[in-house]
Description:
alpha+beta, about 35% helix, elongated, four-stranded antiparallel sheet
Amino acid sequence: xAHDDPQPKLDALDRRILGELQxxxxxxxxxxxxxxxxxxxxxxxxxxxxxxxxVIRQQTVxxxxxxxxRGTCFFVLIRTSEHEADWQRRFLNALMKRPEVLExxxxxxxxxxxxxxxxxxxxxxxxxxQALISDVRIFxxxxxxxxxxxxxxxxxxx
Length: 158
């Protein structure tokens, strides 16, 4: 698997390993090897190759947002009348420096961007909003409060 290969070839064993890592990356190599029906060294080599190829981008932990006083989730819909490169650069810089922004996507359609923002409460969202609009001019912002998180996962189907 070359790092510049746009679509590394993953076989069934690679996919089983990825499934196990996505479920719990804290498992030992022995546990993963046992669950995928292989031995430790080949599993370690495959994980290393998938890291080098960029298939595995990073390993991390998932923290309960409430534990860090970030239990309130807003989806922020942004429409802009500005499309020049300087505005986009300032907007992206504003998003990157705000730790409340967990995800940001540029969209096709009437809405230009959607953000997933986690804050302590509505007052903390307002602080975020005021900071964002002071950094960059935005035509229209709609904030949607998530009342209940029904499904949230980082696990991709393998």
